[in-house]
Amino acid sequence: MATAAMTLGRKRPGTLYPYAQWYFLLAMGTTWLGFAQSYFAVIRTQPMLHHIHGALMGGWIALLIVQPILYQRGRMALHRVLGRWGAFALVPSIVVVGFLMMRGMLLFTQIPPFMVDHLAFLDVSALLLFPLFVGLAVYYGRNLQLHARYIVCTVLLLMPPAVVRAMPILPVFRASFQVDVNIAMALMSTFLLVLLADDIRKEGRMRAPYQVAFVANTLVAVGATMRRTGRGGTYSPRGLCGCSALSRPEAAETAQAGLLFSRPARIARMLNRRDFVKVSAGAGAALASGGVAQGERVAVLEAAAPVAGPAPWKIDMYSKHLQWMRDPHEVAVATKQMGYDGLDVTIRPFPGHVDPAKVKQELPLFVKAVRSEGVEVHMVTAPIADADSPNAEAVLDAASSLGIHSYWWGSLQYVKGQPILPQLEAMRPRVAKLARLNEKYGMTAMYHCFGGEHTVNDKVMVSGPMWDLLHVLKDQDPRFVGIQWDSCHMTNAGGMRTWELNLRAAGPYIRGVSWKDSLPEKAADGRWLPHYLPLGHGNVELVRANAVLREIGFNGPVEIQPEHMKGAAGDGKAKLEEPKEWVYSTMTEDLKMLRDAIAASETYKL
Fold first, then answer.
1. Do 276 and 356 belong together in one domain?
2. Which domain holds residue 165?
3. Which residues contact 188 (CB under 8 A, 6 or more apart)?
């Protein structure tokens, strides 16, 4: 098939690229680096479709290495047989499986939406161009000069998705995800320009294959830079993968991100568009409207992205309640035995599972061990209040490199006796700085809500009435700074279903949910404080709250915090004092209660 000959002791007459084998091996190595974290590091937990995709792509590059060797040795009959199998069996399989992979990535990934759609745009472009250039190579099979060049183009046009995924391994390429995309496309254009220059040097003219590939690569680069791939039309990556009708998880991503590729300064304007309803129905048309009030914007988002299915969200265990276990394998096994889908890992000083000062060494080992037991890690909890918090950048760097893109963030505190609004205004630059740091690493900070005065240290936290937190987050991109809605605190702070109004108002910024339950109890000093109870036994309206989350299109990490247990497990101590069986049964019962409520919320009438 590929006739770019390789050097194997002597060079056959007509050889075009005598060192082609090394270039193809380099491409294979780059591909391995690109998928090292998302596939090879967690290969035991990957579904069969991922293995098939990896085998097919590896088979294509292996074929490109073998074919020139056969040509060099004069084994043309075998060369042609393998070429036909590659063109008419392997290539169609790569395209079909590739689109199935992208559909799964768009619907079920934990990667932040803005990254998912960029990667999908690169993937769909490569999968459309790949068979085109293979077809041209087959068509010109008897013309060595054109055939070999078109085959080289198939490798170069497949590389951007792998290169973009590989670049964050090097710290120099972590300025932002969009910059990485631009650099990857520029590298491919540079390689093509070098090959065009080589044509001019050797033959005095430029051959068509590299010219066509350069134009195609430029168009893909422009499309990626325009950042309009997440709009869900028929000819977008989502439309081509059958996701344009905004299926459950995709619709939720769109609602939360506020149209995924808008810059922070454009978020409010993007949310003002009435066409969001049509986009979420799969129409793909854009009809900009004038000013719309905040409440109307929330209503549009709710109507645009309903979440369906009896179990639309995976539910995580909060590892704070397993800190009496120190072996990550043991933690993962316990998480699975209790029926949870994933783990929120505590990055806190002992007894936290990972020491913040040693996060780059300890987090990869802990996460790898947990994933090896079939338990996913969707988020982490770390002592990050702003970008200047100790070890903040190290935590984000380590988590992002492991494919973890959400983390617990808190907490902003009031100074008692001081005017409220000036304090909130003073917090806004801190949040903006944190948002920039999160964008650099592709992370989402989820501010954990507290209901007014803290029950332990009497500090007053921002977020009780919700409007104060939304004021601080105003103009920030919810992809990088959002909210982890705490059901217990927000219910107690928002009586008579004010919690529901607040939840709707915060819709696009709700990036995670923490479930616990309680009933207010009057303390000796006259304050009403939460008395924590098992899920379903307090004042949290589990079914209704989940129905609202469905309506606003929520699709972030979900976890249970069984603080009602008290004791070592409830308080996150390092040594268990209560019976292990009781801990297991209590956390399992909370999980069952939540899953039943989620299922019931699908048919609940708001």
1. no
2. 20-226
3. 156, 157, 159, 160, 163, 217
In sequence order, the 6+-apart residues with CB closer than 8 A to the CB of 371 are 41, 42, 44, 45, 332, 377
Instruction: Kindly state whether residue 155 falls inside one of the protein's structural domains.
Output: yes
Task: For 409-449, give the secondary structure using H, E and C.
Answer: ECCCECCCCCCHHHHHHHHHHHHHHHHHHHHHHCCEEEEEC
298 and 364 in a common domain: no
- Residue 543 belongs to a domain: yes
Is the pLDDT score of 302 beyond 70?
no
If asked whether residues 296 and 329 sit together in one domain, one would say: no
Residue 595 lies in a domain: yes
CB neighbours (10 Å) of residue 34? 23
Note whether residue 93 is domain-resident.
Answer: yes
Residue type at 411? S
Residue predicted with more confidence, 58 or 43: 58
Together in a domain, 82 and 208: yes
Cα–Cα nearest to 491, from 434, 437, 433, 450: 450
Residue 376 · residue 346 · CB < 8 Å:
no
- Residue 330 phi, psi (nearest 5): -65, -40
pLDDT tens digits along 456-500: 556 888 999 999 999 999 889 999 999 999 999 999 998 899 999
Picking from 127, 74, 162, 168, the residue whose alpha carbon sits closest to that of residue 400 is: 168
The DSSP symbol for 300 reads H
pLDDT at 7 over 50: no
Shared domain for 175 and 119, answered yes or no, is yes
Q: Say whether 91 sits in a helix, a strand or coil.
A: helix
Q: Tens digits of per-residue pLDDT, 428-458? A: 999 999 999 999 999 999 999 988 776 555 6
Q: How far apart are CA 205 and CA 8, in angstroms?
A: 29
Residue 281 pLDDT: 35
pLDDT of 11 higher than 60: no
**How is residue 470 annotated by DSSP?**
H
Number of domains in the chain: 3
> Cα separation of 1 and 81, whole Å?
8
Residues 472 and 579 in one domain: yes
Q: Which of 283, 304, 325 is the last residue of a domain?
A: 304
Domain limit, last residue, from 180, 206, 226: 226
Q: In CATH, what number is assigned to the domain containing residue 514?
A: 3.20.20.150
Q: What is the DSSP letter of 95?
A: H
- State the Cα–Cα distance between residues 233 and 281, nearest whole angstrom: 10
- The tokens describing 286, both together, are 């854009």
For tokens 């992208």, what's the residue? 102
Q: What are phi and psi of 428, to 5 degrees?
A: -60, -45
Residue 268 pLDDT: 32
